[in-house]
Amino acid sequence: MSADIAQRLHTREQVATRSRRARIVRGLGPLTAVVGIVWAVAQPWRLTLLHPHGQGLWWLIVEPPLYVVLVGVLFRFVVAPGLVEDMEAEE
Amino acid sequence: MIVAGIEPKAEMVHWWFATGVLVLGLLFIAQTIVGPEVWGRRPWRRYLWPGFLFLLGVLMWPVMALYTNSMIHMVAHGSWAQTLMIAGAAELGVAHGKLHSQYWRLTSAGAMLVSGTAFLVHEQNGWFFERASFLHHALGWTLIVASVFPLLQAFRPRSVVAASGFAMTFLVIAVFLYCDRDTAPVLGHFSQFAGVPHR
User: Fold this and answer.
1) The model's pTM
2) Looking at the 3D structure of chain B, how many domains does it have?
3) Which domain holds residue B83?
4) Is the Cβ pair B12, A86 closer than 8 Å?
């Protein structure tokens, strides 16, 4: 009986660890995107789209804070869903 | 002269590479969290970061060709291109199952060591000349010190500390590269010989 309870507790612990990992994986993309947004707010001059007059083509294409947001969004929607699905399948 | 007029500034190239390195960092962190078994469940995912590493190596060649303003720059950029491609190719071989030895991870350690040395060698100015100089020194030493992580992984492939350190190194490098400006002060320092400062 006590071995059964210990086994159930162990299984519950494993599931909790996996779901915590899944939450971290799901959160990596949004966290990255938020960092990009915070950077854009803190240093708006790095976003030339906000003041495009007199800027050359490259300066209008190159927007580092938006790149960070884009990486976060891509990770969230391209990499994270499959990873979480596979983690759940492992359970 | 025409190429010089239309090519993007060096700082922009640093930001593009920062984006690639940030992608690599996120992929490494995710792989460390879920473990190699879950990561390898989908074949395309196994090729993701080795392919990206190889691509960064390929993209270093145009950097070498277009941003060579001295012999030492050419050697530095060329050696990065080669070592990144070697590391990426070795990891692709491991992912595909053609290569089996865990010691192929030593190519990543070699790539970081060569890249770090190249950063230090091709920076002619001191730490506080301006921001780009500071970041070249910081990037060089970061890469040299962090090459211990893939070295450790070659001997202890399942080490979480080594995998985490390797992943975090890429995030630090991405931050450094995003901070780069062609001419900007660093911690209040800016040499009068550096040019017109940006924010």
Assistant:
1) 0.86
2) 1
3) 8-179
4) no
